[in-house]
Specification:
The protein has 8 helices and no strands.
Length: 243
């Protein structure tokens, strides 16, 4: 890769992250506006189904935007596996540039939604004890990271199938944790909504919605590489022996 291409990548990726993060938060708020205010479905099973379908559609749209922008993402948990597995310089770039830009995109979108449609925002709401909430968000984040990595591993060239598996599983995990922590599994989005009232620096928020998902992601990457990487190496060895 030429130096010009590298510079373009380093410059454009954070812009893509900001754009996709902004759109993701706006889509989530607009789906709640559509379900609760326009369609008037309330908060019953029908509303959960409608929001689930809209969420899957939003994830497909953001995944497509990420594809055409060369890797734009709205969730730090989606960036960390690649950053951990790559070179140290790429890890530093991800942590120092891409993740903060995702947070800024979510904050900008939350501010716009709050000013345009008051009381439609949906920030994190912890309904259990703090440590139980951290365990819940950690388990949910661990699950979606492992599922996403496995989906990428087995369907790397199939955009539709990879996105379908990840999005449906994420909606299912969100529903499992919705009554406890909200099932966020996205530190950037959680910070975006809590930034408006200053709660993003509280111990509860940092532990449950930031630290626990990140630790779960690190554990998921380690376990995935522990069990999958030997299999890849064995296949390479077998192929060389066959040749």
């Amino acid at each position: 890769m030429s130096q010009l291409s590298q510079f373009s990548l380093l410059f454009l990726l954070p812009i893509s992250d900001f754009m996709v993060s902004f759109i993701w938060v706006c889509l989530g708020a607009l789906s709640r506006l559509l379900v609760h205010r326009i369609l008037g479905l309330g908060f019953d099973t029908g509303a959960d189904t409608a929001k689930g379908l809209l969420s899957v559609g939003s994830m497909f749209l953001c995944a497509w935007l990420g594809k055409i922008t060369g890797g734009g993402s709205y969730n730090p948990l989606a960036l960390l596996p690649g950053a951990i597995s790559g070179h140290f310089s790429w890890f530093v770039f991800t942590i120092a540039a891409r993740v903060p830009v995702q947070v800024l995109g979510c904050i900008a979108a939350a501010k716009l939604i709050t000013e345009t449609f008051p009381r439609i925002g949906d920030g994190p709401c912890l309904n259990v004890e703090m440590h139980l909430g951290a365990l819940t968000e950690g388990l949910l984040s661990f699950g979606i990271v492992v599922i996403s990595m496995e989906a990428t591993y087995i369907t790397s060239d199939d955009f539709f199938m990879k996105t379908w598996i990840s999005s449906v599983c994420k909606v299912a995990l969100h529903l499992l944790g919705s009554d406890l922590t909200g099932g966020w599994m996205n530190p950037a989005s959680a910070i975006g909504w809590t930034y408006m009232d200053g709660k993003f620096i509280s111990e509860e928020h940092l532990l449950v919605y930031c630290l626990a998902p990140i630790q779960a992601t690190l554990l998921a990457v380690w376990i995935f590489r522990l069990f999958v990487k030997p299999t890849e190496e064995e296949e390479i060895i077998k192929k060389k022996k066959t040749d």
